[in-house]
Amino acid sequence: MSNKLTKEMLDALIKEALLQEDFPYKDAVSLYGGATKDELGDIGPRIQKQLFDRLASLEDPNSEVSDSDFDHFLVDQNWEDYDEQMQRLMVALYKSPKTPDDVGKKAKDVMDAFDELMKDKLKKRQTITQPQIRSAGGEVGDFPDELDTILNTVFGTTDDFLERIKKVNEISNFYYQLAIDPEKRGPKAGRTALANKPNNEFLAEVMLLEYFAEIVSSFDQGAGAYLFEYFLAALSGGRVTGKEAGPGGGMGAVDFRTKGDQAGSAKFYSSSSDISQAISGFNIGLEVRYIIGLKKQTKGQIGTKTAKGGTDPARLIGADIYYVSVKRTGDKEFEVRRVNKDGSLGSTNLFKSEHIEGAAGKEKLKFADYINENSFLSTLFVAETRTKTFRDMVFDSVSSSTNSLKQSILEEMEKFFVQLDAANANCKKFAASGDLDEGSNTLNAIDAADAAFANLANKFANAAVKDVSGKRTLEKIPVTENKMAELDLMIEHMVKQFLKG
Q1: Which of 291, 305, 454, 472 is deepest in the core (most CB within 10 A)?
Q2: Looking at the structure, do residues 404 and 333 belong to the same domain, yes or no?
Q3: Domain residues for 200?
Q4: What count of other Cβ atoms lies within 10 Å of the Cβ of residue 453?
Q5: Which residue, of 89, 123, 157, is where some domain finishes?
Q6: Residue 129 placed within a domain
């Protein structure tokens, strides 16, 4: 880089920016793929020197911003360091007339490369089984047949809604923590806990999380908000209500009902300041449990209600979950209480008259003041970083010799579903075109799915496919044969690790 930025030059650049506000919002928005002013923050007077220092310190030398700092992203692909602050800095560097041309170009190259990564991520397989979500059936409690089996395996006899939400959060945190450490894949205790987890429990947990991951990553903002209701209704063993009517006959506050008929409402937003509910939607005397998900793009935003997670599903790594109880007791009177970890309600009514805003007849109950550390449950993760998918997180969580069997099981299960999807697509092409090649592709995909299932059954359940008089069944493999299979698997894993270096 011909014109390197020293700390002294950066100081001068920042002082100039603070005085002249060289980074206009309108131009920055057009550069940043449709981001809003709120998502970008104050690119003018709030630029902080430590952001520039942070860029300079990515690679040696730490006293200046040079090619190596930008190559930290462009060449070395360390996108986990490209959080919202670093993003804001790249926009600022590109827009400032005081930035040397080659530095500005490098900043723009990083921005463009990240945008391409996001486009590529959307094209990838987000989950392993890609669960089919048909929201229409949710209103009558008609969820996919396999979901009952998954829920029973994960939760056992626990029907309590709060316990189920907490359990899902714990599960997602378990796999996230194992995945985020690229060297150790989490603490030894975590790796051992995963290795000791029954294989059916492991796969059931992954498949349950996949429903939320698909909702977060594969649907746009509007659909994602509605499908959050669908997920919570399915999780509770209940049904989506289609917005029960409020006292005035209009749209009510209730989005779903649990198996025990508890009224629930779901909110899935990028910012707590935007969350409200028309008071006309509340029936007097009815308690509604609010489950609020605040979208998050980076690890630095976790647990911070003021950090705006944005609306782009491709960039989300999860959601902070909050839980409060709301009961309308009068015309403009409410009881708002936090829900304790044991499911009981807090003793303090958090409602104040100033929590209602709007003109007469259009008043809304504001939720921002109820979203805090008291109502915070946990974070539901779907990815390690915003450049990775849920699939990546799960595979990373099992990437250790301790969990080679679970990694192998996961690989075979994914192969099975990938080939089924291919068979489905090719069959439709064949039906629409009559092309025999498409028919052959369908058969090939079915055969590949068949082989993957046989491998899955072998590794997952110690079973083999047997053909008896033209009817195929699964049968247990003798223990001695299975021990040899486990040895083969261990050797296979060691060879793979050796080839990776």
Answers
A1: 291
A2: no
A3: 135-390
A4: 20
A5: 123
A6: no
Integer Cα distance of 129 and 143 in angstroms: 16
**Which residues face 98 on adjacent strands?**
none
Single-letter code of the amino acid located at 291: I
Compute how many other C-beta atoms are within 10 angstroms of the C-beta atom of residue 114: 21
Q: Which amino acid would we find at residue 331?
A: D
Say how many Å lie between the first and final Cα of the chain, rounded: 33
Radius of gyration of the chain (CA): 26
DSSP code of residue 465 = E
Q: CA-based angle 442:446:451, to the nearest 5?
A: 150
DSSP class of residue 345 equals: B
List phi, psi (to 5°) of 275. -90, 125
Phi, psi dihedrals of residue 475, rounded to the nearest 5°: -135, 150
* Dihedral sign of CA atoms 291, 297, 303, 305 in order: negative
Q: Pairing between strand 263-269 and 287-296?
A: parallel
Residues 280 and 182 occupy one common structural domain: yes
Task: Give the C-alpha separation, 273 to 356, whole Å.
Answer: 13
Mean pLDDT by runs of 10 across the 501 residues of the chain is 57 50 37 37 45 78 80 92 81 74 87 90 88 73 86 92 94 92 62 91 96 86 82 90 63 84 90 86 92 89 74 84 94 92 89 89 89 90 91 92 90 96 96 96 96 93 87 83 58 60 55
Contact 29, 262 (CB under 8 A): no
| Tokens describing residue 151 | 């829920």
- Total domains in the chain come to 3
| Domain stops at, among 123, 143, 176 | 123
Task: Tell me the torsion sign for CA atoms 227, 228, 229, 235.
Answer: positive
pTM (two decimals): 0.80
Cβ-based burial of 456 (10 A; exposed 0-12, middle 13-18, buried ≥19): buried
Rounded CA separation 346/344 (Å): 7
Joined tokens for residue 121 = 């991520």
Residues 6+ apart with CB under 8 A from 266: 225, 228, 229, 232, 255, 256, 290, 291, 292, 293
Contacts of 154 (CB under 8 A, 6+ apart): 167, 171, 201, 204, 205, 208
